[in-house]
Design a protein that fits this description.
The chain is an all-alpha fold. The protein is 80% helix and 1% strand. Strand 1 and strand 2 (10-11) form a beta hairpin. Helix 9 (258-279) runs antiparallel to helix 11.
């Protein structure tokens, strides 16, 4: 128990020192260990990749050409499984840290998930792009990871809801109710699961944003696959909200929280990554044939700084909320206050009239009685 400095009452509190001890003494080491496991899995994938390439180089048969796709497909499946397993660990750790505010809880959870998912999903692509410098392998790995992530995501959002609906019908049959008959809508909605929120949707968009923009100069077709996935996502999300989960309750929020910073950092990294990819490409060297490696690097560092400066200027010039939206919100607020003021005035006038009319009746009755006595 601790004393609230505002109300002066004793309230249940959790010491900040103990919370920090849990974060930096337990959560951080566990997250670091998970990152090391992700690095080890990446090294195993590259060993498999080099083995498949050596086998294809010795014997370029059809079987060995198909064998080239095996390591990256296996790695894509392992990445998705590790993301799902780490998600459970991150939720348990953040809940165990016992944060006082919901916003603090969500920010710490977002940092854990974004850090691991970024390393687990994009670390191998950075290694291929800037250490191995194999653009063909980069395109193949990026396409496989992106398409596999989208296929698994669509299966989770369409196949699982369909199986859930089938399970609900099976439960009704088990209870002796015929699903073909008309069932009370309230009973059906009561059996549906509670909507988990938009947290997973933000994480999915964050990963898709990274796959599309981090290496867009190496694989521009990633934008097409992302567009196709988002078109299908509209219908799957609609089916999920209307037929699978209970009706979600709307919640007010001033912003998207730590996700805004995550997307901003991803945009900055994307600018640096694409400028570096263009700098090391043979096409860029043709424009500066007399420049050495150092001069070429300085040129593209300058270009990268100009693009980032232009990005900052655009963010400053373009307001987060347009003026017409601010005016519309202010007008709605003004009309609401005027309507409330009018309603209170009418209610006070009606109350005054109800109190005035009986007094007038009493005065007239008293005057009539006096006249009768006279």
């Amino acid at each position: 128990m601790g004393k609230n400095l505002v109300t002066g009452r004793n309230e249940p509190t959790f010491p900040e020192r103990q919370r920090n001890l849990r974060i930096y003494g337990v959560s951080v080491p566990i997250v670091v260990c998970c990152l090391l496991v992700a690095i080890y899995v990446m090294l195993v994938y590259f060993r498999m990749e080099f083995w498949a390439q050596a086998r294809y180089k010795d014997n370029p048969s059809l079987f060995n050409s198909l064998l080239l796709l095996l390591p990256v497909c296996f790695y894509a499946g392992v990445v998705i499984a590790m993301n799902a397993a780490y998600r459970l660990v991150a939720f348990k750790l953040t809940h165990w840290e016992n944060h006082r505010l919901q916003s603090s809880y969500e920010n710490h959870l977002i940092v854990k998930l974004v850090l691991f998912n970024f390393m687990n999903c994009f670390m191998s692509l950075f290694y291929i792009a800037f250490v191995i410098q194999d653009m063909a392998l980069l395109r193949r790995s990026l396409a496989t990871l992106l398409i596999t992530l989208q296929i698994v995501g669509q299966a989770q959002e369409t196949l699982l809801p369909y199986l859930m609906k089938k399970y609900q019908k099976w439960c009704l049959q088990k209870e002796g109710k015929d699903p073909a008959q008309k069932i009370d809508q309230r009973e059906l909605e009561m059996r549906q699961q509670i909507y988990p929120g938009v947290f997973d949707d933000y994480l999915e968009l964050f990963l898709q944003f990274g796959y599309v923009f981090l290496f867009s100069s190496a694989y521009p077709l990633a934008a097409f696959w992302a567009l196709l996935n988002n078109i299908l996502e509209i219908r799957t999300d609609a089916f999920k909200l209307c037929r699978v989960f209970q009706r979600p309750l709307s919640q007010l929020a001033s912003s998207i929280g730590a996700w805004q910073m995550a997307f901003e950092i991803m945009g900055v990294i994307a600018v640096i990554t694409n400028c570096a990819l263009i700098a090391q490409s043979p096409q860029a060297r043709k424009f500066f044939p007399d420049s050495n490696e150092t001069q070429l690097l300085m040129i593209f560092v300058g270009v990268e700084h100009l693009i980032l400066a232009f990005k900052v200027c655009l963010a400053y010039v373009i307001p987060d909320t347009p003026d017409w939206v601010n005016i519309a919100v202010a007008r709605i607020d003004y009309e609401s206050r005027q309507a409330l003021k009018t309603e209170r005035s009418n209610r006070a006038r009606k109350t005054f009239q109800e109190q005035t009319v009986p007094a007038e009746l009493l005065t007239s009755e008293l005057a009539g009685a006096i006249e009768t006595e006279i």
